[in-house]
Specification:
Length: 147
């Protein structure tokens, strides 16, 4: 591993602490570069975080805290299978009869899928826009099913 400058070491420490505590980079970047504007401080931190020696030091530091790619992706993978339970009144069982129904939790699944995409580097470019012509689709479905 290449030697870190004192500033790079501060960035690695702040990034690890921020990752563990959930404090975003924008909140601590200005503390590292107090004489810069907020935007400039964030850019400078990002530049430093992309240096190979800083990346290596960051990975080692995160692993010391148990934050490995495998562990993170395991949690994300669990999120992609999230379900939620609904209590549904049983119409056949009277007023006090109910049952539990488990359904996919699409909100959590979408968040986990976004996290996985970020982790894999799929969201680096602007996400392509998908346009759907619902009127045309509806007409095609009517024709297809003879409606």
């Amino acid at each position: 591993m290449g030697k870190l400058t004192p500033k790079e070491a501060k960035i690695v420490k702040a990034k690890v602490e921020g990752t563990i505590s959930g404090v975003p980079q924008r909140r601590w970047a200005k503390e590292i570069y107090p004489n810069m504007t907020q935007a400039s401080a964030e850019v400078e931190v990002s530049k430093n975080l992309n240096k190979p020696n800083v990346q290596e030091a960051l990975q080692i530091a995160l692993e010391k805290h148990g934050l490995t790619a495998d562990r993170i992706m395991g949690v994300v993978s669990d999120g992609m299978n999230a379900t939620k339970v609904h209590i549904v009144r049983d119409p056949m069982g009277g007023e006090e009869s109910a049952f539990a129904e488990e359904t996919p939790d699409h909100s959590i699944r979408l968040k986990a899928a976004g996290m996985a995409a970020n982790f894999m580097g799929l969201n680096r470019d602007k996400t392509p826009t998908v346009n759907i012509n619902f009127n045309q689709h509806a007409q095609e479905q009517k024709e297809k099913y003879g409606l």
